[in-house]
Amino acid sequence: MEFRLIERIRELTAQPRDDVRLGIGDDAAILAVPVGQELVAAIDTLVDGVHFPHGTAAADIGWKSLAVNLSDLAAMGASPAWALLALTLPDADADFVDGFAAGFARLAQSHRLALVGGDTTRGPLSISVAVHGFVPPGKALTRDRAQVGDAILVTGTLGDAAAGLHALQRPLAVDDSRAALREFLIERLNLPTPRLAAGAALRGQASACIDISDGLVADLGHICNASGVGAEIDAALLPRSSALMSLYDDASALRFALAGGDDYELCFTVPGKKLSDVQSDLSRIGCGVTRIGRIVEGSGVRVRGADGEWLVDEPQGWEHFA
Ligand code: ADP
Ligand code: MG
């Protein structure tokens, strides 16, 4: 693909780092893992019309393609360092590449992350980003150590991104006074914030951690499976934004919060004796955190409604949302 496009990407994402011995321009990058650190690696692909709505702004696609990967590093408690970018484009559209690289760079540079290489090919629009970060030996957060009695917590608010997608799919009256709330939800879909500072603060504190990409029940279910435990959450405790609560009725807001994907908040478990420390650590770094339930014996995720009835009783499933 055109050398000029790669050159634009290189210029727009420039981020000097001592541990990058050789970045974009040779056959491969040469990188120095800091002595005494473990390397944490992840990759995610975004396909046009599948992982972002067709017609999403180039800068938002650039941001999101990196954000979803940084969210995986956050969930491991890793500090980001490097990325590789495989870009498949329908044509050599310089405006698209400029917008994409600007959005990617805005998030990358705020975390001092260096784009050190990649590949550019022609085909249906699709983006793969691989990220690399560091964690002190043995300190990475995993999914498999939740213990019966642990508290279950989440960062931020849930359901905004799914509501944003829903809002995007319906037309807006021109003078809609609620346009700003709608914009907030769409921004939560297109420009998710990876919770890197929270993930780093949870090292040595959380017993298990995952980022919420597929929805709370699904992702908390992964912690349950990996740890061999069950989870009970209280619907009334789920943190929901005022935008979500203003634009949607309670039942829809609850459905988005439980089953909607793309929020990229962290869901994690903490032993009772560390709970107050964790809550104050996250508050100190300005990250909202809410206790939503607890780990129990058994398997699967159960959600208790306001009247004490079970709304979701996994693995039986989702009858109440059918
Ligand atoms: P090669 O044939 O050796 O793979 P390429 O033309 O694919 O060479 O890439 C040339 C250089 O540009 C390499 O250093 C590669 O890592 C980098 N590069 C190519 N595409 C991208 C991209 N989309 N983002 C970042 N770096 C890229
Ligand atoms: Mg190549």
Terminal-residue CA separation: 47 Å
Specify the CATH class of the largest domain: Alpha Beta
The CATH homology group name of the largest domain: PurM-like C-terminal domain
Helix content: 25-40%
The geometry reads as: globular
Descriptors:
322 residues, alpha+beta, Phosphoribosyl-aminoimidazole Synthetase, Chain A, domain 2, 10 helices, disordered C terminus, binds magnesium ion
How are the SSEs placed, and which strands pair?
Layout: H1 3-12, E1 20-22, E2 30-31, E3 38-47, H2 58-76, E4 79-89, H3 94-110, E5 114-122, E6 126-135, E7 151-155, H4 160-168, H5 179-190, H6 196-201, E8 208-211, H7 216-227, E9 230-234, H8 242-247, H9 250-259, E10 266-270, H10 275-284, E11 289-296, E12 300-304, E13 310-313
Parallel strand pairs: 4-5, 9-12
Antiparallel strand pairs: 1-2, 3-6, 4-6, 7-10, 7-11, 8-10, 9-11, 12-13
Helix pairs in contact: 1-3, 2-3, 4-5
The structure holds adenosine-5'-diphosphate and magnesium ion.
Adenosine-5'-diphosphate (ADP) binds next to helix 1, strand 4 and strand 5.
